[in-house]
Specification:
The protein is α+β, with helices and mostly antiparallel strands. About 15% of the residues lie in helices and about 40% in strands. It is built from 3 helices and 10 strands, in the order βαβααββββββββ. Strands 3, 4, 5, 6, 7, 8, 9 and 10 form an 8-stranded antiparallel sheet that branches. The radius of gyration is 15 Å and the shape is globular.
């Protein structure tokens, strides 16, 4: 909660060592601007994370920003949730977002042991705000939305339940 530099939370929904609920508590308590990237099938460990481009793009965007001291990151999650049986996630980005994917589970128990389903969903842009939305899947027990730009993945907040 005392962090002043921007923070990247890079993980995956199948991580048995750092379940999604604990990860969410951690980034919710972060005292600075932060970005979440949840990469399906990434695996646990240093090598899987180092082989992904998200951490390098994050560091570059912060270090090269004219406002680097203020924590300018290239994509920010704004809000996400469910409204009228439609899930949604909003983002603002310096880059053109190319696609959105709903990542969800209908299983119960520790998130690292669940099966995660990936579904391409609608992505639109209105007044510099990107909106990804889709009907709520039946029996969903956990979900988040990933958006992609130039091969980089940024995630919405993780939500448990429907």
């Amino acid at each position: 909660d005392r962090a002043t530099m921007p923070v990247l939370w890079l993980s995956w929904p199948g991580d048995k060592h750092f379940p999604m609920e604990i990860l969410k508590k951690s980034y919710d308590q972060c005292g600075s601007e932060n970005m979440v990237s949840l990469i399906p099938n990434m695996r646990h460990g240093h090598h899987p994370a180092w082989s992904r481009p998200e951490s390098y793009a994050f560091a570059k965007s912060v270090a090269q920003s004219p406002l680097a001291h203020s924590g300018k990151i290239w994509c920010q999650r704004l809000e996400s949730g469910i409204l009228n049986n439609q899930l949604f996630a909003k983002f603002i980005s310096d880059r053109e977002l190319g696609s959105a994917t709903l990542v969800h589970s209908t299983d119960s128990g520790i998130t690292g042991h669940r099966k995660w389903i990936e579904t391409p969903i609608r992505l639109t842009k209105r007044n510099d705000i990107w909106l990804a939305d889709w009907p709520v899947p039946q029996k969903v027990t956990g979900w988040f939305v990933n958006v992609e730009a130039d091969g980089l993945i940024v995630s919405s907040d993780y939500h448990s339940g429907s």
